Amino acid sequence: MDAEKNYLVGIFDDEDVLVSGVTSIREKGVKIHEVYSPFPVHGLDEVLGYKRSRLPIAAFMFGMTGTSLALLMQIWMLGYDWPMIIGGKNFVSLPPFIPVTFELTVLLSALGMVATFMIVSDLKPYRWPRQFDLRSTDDKHVMAIDLALNHGKSKSEITSILKAAGATEVNEKNFE
């Protein structure tokens, strides 16, 4: 884990003020670490400059893996390892395989997406997440600015930029 991290935390009351504040803060050259909100804010990911998530691609790949494994397993089990006559046919018949194939596709897709999300989000069972302000889960929007990423700007300058952008309060948060 990182050594000591110092952040300035801006608290916003309104989501419209937050979105316009993010735009003005980024235009002034301040690098924003993260913005936390109690509910989804439309357009916030665009003004923060986030790219589209690749999680649907991972979900498709996990689903295809589930489909392939289900068909391979059933064809092997019922066609070669222990052949059975199903529906009067003594060879592999695909229609009875559809329910199991569907279920394994959904199972592997869901488990793979959860695992991928946890890895990408750096969520580990032995590590507590950083909580910048407890009100971010209730009714406030919180913008965290890492002071180490903003070399050319002082703490007081970033504080005044946050206040001008509409932050109702600015606090300093240290993590050790």
SSE topology sketch:
Elements: E1 5-12, H1 15-27, E2 34-36, H2 44-48, H3 55-81, H4 98-120, E3 141-146, H5 155-164, E4 169-175
Antiparallel strand pairs: 1-3, 1-4, 2-3
Helix pairs in contact: 3-4
In short:
It comes from Chryseolinea serpens. With 176 residues, this protein is of the alpha+beta class.
Can you offer a commentary on this structure?
With 176 residues, this protein is α+β, with helices and mostly antiparallel strands. The chain has 2 domains: 5-52 and 130-175, 2-Layer Sandwich (Alpha-Beta Plaits), CATH 3.30.70; 55-120, no CATH class. 44% of the residues lie in helices and 14% in strands. A 4-stranded antiparallel sheet has the order 2-3-1-4. The longest helix is centred in the middle third of the chain and has 27 residues, at 55-81. It is elongated and about 80 Å long. The mean pLDDT is 87.
Keywords:
alpha+beta, 4-stranded antiparallel β-sheet, Alpha-Beta Plaits, single chain, 2 domains, about 180 residues
Instruction: Measure the end-to-end span.
Output: 9 Å
The total beta strand count reads 4
Shape: elongated
Q: Calculate the mean pLDDT score and round it.
A: 87
Number of structurally distinct domains:
2
Radius of gyration: 25 Å
CATH class of the largest domain: Alpha Beta
Structural class: alpha+beta
- Please tell me the CATH architecture of the largest domain by its name: 2-Layer Sandwich
Low-confidence stretches: none
**Sheet with the most strands, sense and barrel status:** 4 strands, antiparallel
**Number of helices, counting only DSSP H or I runs of 4 residues or more:** 5
The CATH topology of the largest domain corresponds to Alpha-Beta Plaits
Which H/E pattern describes the elements?
A: EHEHHHEHE
